[in-house]
Write a structure and sequence with these properties.
single chain; about 375 residues; alpha+beta; Aminopeptidase; OB fold (Dihydrolipoamide Acetyltransferase, E2P); 2 domains; 18 strands; globular
């Protein structure tokens, strides 16, 4: 069936079932063998500390009993983005080798050092999602990226990379990919998140490096940093299982969502023009009309200072969670449903901009797009 968006437009005719996939038999990851019909938890060594302690990535491989695609699922590329860890755990609890065609490769914690310190970054402040494809002789970030690319990503037919919003922001569950990549778009429709958002590939990102190897990747965004949010985890878990069903890996996948998926190739962060205390008038996932009030900013004594109205008709797909704003702070992220002749992606990232990246682009609203 050709995927169809909520606006009635038809998606590409490519079918995930055209993937050649892999035959049955053992898989070897980092020197460890995973037999046919087996599940193996292993540690993929990527580096070591100055005390000689190993730095290893936790990897779970579920090798099915029938030929089929190889799918990878990664989480916590940014160390403060925790919902994906729980999604991987839930998926693995529902997938048995005897029911699987092909193989599932899961890395629930990619940024193992950042997670330890509740940090988006590695200890040297590198953003791991700007360091792909990495290098075997590079920095810690480069070595992690290189090991992930060579042992996992480069061997797979498709992948799902799980993220949340940056700190002090939240995202409505959404898929980010290229709407013009028929493979990624078909898988994104199968995932069934409420929104599929056009996202340009960011150099150095996992998705960009995978695409260079011919591997389509979906970036799932949902919720806040440093949280386990059950509604987001449920959407992500069902989505991964639906993709596995679409790939022919599972027969018993969740049904499609009851609400049609909304596609958008144009999003905008609406920013504060005054500093003060923020009073939002809209909520996550809410449809807003052009000129509808989005928020009011008041001073510390409660007198109204300014009210911001929406310059677009769209849907709220993300917003700040901090009730204090400075001029130029990103407050509400709007997606404009459908296709647009001259789309303007407000921040062309596959994940939410960091504080530093956001500040660097505060004056580029007309040219920017997250993820």
């Amino acid at each position: 069936m050709t995927p169809t968006g909520a606006d009635g437009t038809q998606g590409p005719a490519w079918s995930p079932h055209t993937l050649e996939g892999a035959g049955t038999g053992p898989l070897e990851i980092g020197g460890a063998k995973v037999g046919e019909g087996a599940r193996t938890d292993l540690q993929l060594q990527v580096s070591e500390s100055y005390t000689g302690d190993r730095t290893s990535l936790p990897v779970t491989v579920v090798n099915g009993v029938r030929p089929g695609p190889l799918l990878f699922v990664t989480a916590a590329v940014h160390g403060d983005e925790l919902n994906g860890i729980a999604i991987v755990r839930e998926v693995l609890a529902r997938v048995e080798p005897a029911d699987l065609s092909g193989a599932l490769m899961c890395v629930p914690v990619v940024n193992v050092l950042g997670v330890q310190f509740h940090s988006r970054y590695l200890p040297d402040r590198r953003d791991l999602n700007r360091c792909f494809p990495g290098s075997a002789s590079g920095s810690t970030a480069g070595r992690i990226a290189h090991a992930l690319m060579t042992e996992i990503i480069g061997r797979c037919d498709a992948g799902i990379d799980l993220h949340t919003a940056a700190n002090r922001r939240m995202n409505v569950p959404q898929i980010r990919c290229s709407l013009h990549d028929e493979r990624a778009f078909a898988l994104g429709m199968a995932f069934g998140a409420p929104f599929i958002i056009e996202a340009a590939r960011r150099p150095g990102s996992l998705r960009d490096a995978a695409a260079a190897e011919g591997v389509p990747v979906l970036t799932f965004e949902g919720g806040e940093a440093l949280r386990f949010e059950q509604d987001v985890i449920a959407v992500g878990t069902a989505g991964v299982l639906r993709v596995m069903g679409a790939l022919g890996m599972l027969e018993d996948a969740p049904p499609p969502p009851a609400v049609a998926v909304v596609t958008s190739d144009e999003t905008h962060w609406i920013r504060a023009d005054r500093g003060g205390i923020l009073h939002l008038h809209v909520g996550a996932g809410e449809h807003v009309a052009q000129d509808q009030p989005l928020w009011t900013v008041t001073g510390p004594f409660g007198r109204e200072r300014s009210q911001t109205h929406s310059p677009y008709s769209g849907v709220v797909i993300g917003m700040t969670t901090l009730p204090l704003v400075n001029p130029g702070d990103a407050v509400v992220h709007l997606a404009l449903p459908g296709e647009h002749a001259a789309s303007s992606i407000n921040e062309p990232l596959i994940d939410e901009p960091s504080d530093e990246e956001d500040a660097d682009r505060a004056d580029e609203d007309e040219d920017e797009d997250r993820t």
